[in-house]
Amino acid sequence: MALLFLFTKNFSIVPMVALFVLLMCGIQMTGVHSVGVCYGRMADNLPSESDVVNHCHANDTNVLNALRESNIEVLVDVPNEHVKTLAQDPNQARNWVNNNIKAYFPSVKFRYIAVGNEISPIKHVEFAPFVGPAIENVHNAIVEAGLQDQIKVSTATYSALLTNTWPPQNSMFNPDWRGFTDPIVKLLKDNNLPLLVNIYPYFSYIYNMKDIPLSYALFTDSGINSAGYQNLFDALVDSMYYALEKSGAPNVEIVVSETGWPSYGHPAATTDNARTYYTNLIDHVRNGTPKKPGKEIETFLFAMFDERGKGGDETERHFGLFYPDRNSKYDQLNF
User: Fold this and answer.
1) Nearest CA to 299 among 333, 260, 255?
2) Which of 118, 144, 296, 316 is catalytic?
3) How confident is the model at residue 43 (pLDDT cuts 50, 70, 90)?
4) Is 258 designated active site?
5) DSSP assignment letter at 310
6) Mean pLDDT across 303-328
7) For residue 105, what is the domain's CATH number?
8) Is 333 a domain residue?
9) Which sequence ranges are marked TM in the entry (predicted)?
């Protein structure tokens, strides 16, 4: 089963709640059943939506319609700016589910709904108080539709919410932000919902090159192993697992909603390094982590294409696995 993570502003079916600015498209990889690929659209030189969906074994000119009967599973994102609306009005959540999920189900195989992406109680004070209530309202709408066994509702978060992350066993959610994280964690635990987490060893490495060996970030050497960890990806994933455990939710599962390595824009951002990261990651995720050995890690690679329209550091425009002409940047990757 291929996986698709869908974020696109073109699906503004409900006026108050549009979908976001990216489309993540999953490509089935040989021997790996839990890896998807992100399809960012912040560029003016990318293939058409229909071409990209064809790339994912579907057809048609409208992406959701194109996904009908495609055997590609989808994760749909609710953008940060609409989280408050869904939190304050259960009817808006119900309408969103009716128009964006039920209208396409079951011919489109929805898997997750991510309510917000990397919302921080410091950087996004206008959205943060509403994440938990929005998840609850959307989840309740999914239950009302009888889809709770097929579609799980969550939010996509990141390691910045943690403290004491090394060794991973010491990790916890920042105590100053427990008013934000605790209700979300409890909601996920009580409803058997996963936590979506963006994991980027690349950024951890470049911000602490003094202490983190490149080989440790690329899975190529044991590097730091005093805490039983042979690579940075596992350490970051398990840091989140330990934080969940300390918050009373040891059984909440983690889905890696984004991970990637850029190919240009920094001394560590090379094509060889990126190829190494993706190749080793694809081989690795089937094996689990030291805390969850043997448990395959559902993972989405970021991203499908380089996106020359993105702002920020130069590296932000070079996370693609494919060139805009759909030729693979990394020929040795086994898709």
Assistant:
1) 255
2) 118
3) very low
4) yes
5) -
6) 81
7) 3.20.20.80
8) no
9) none
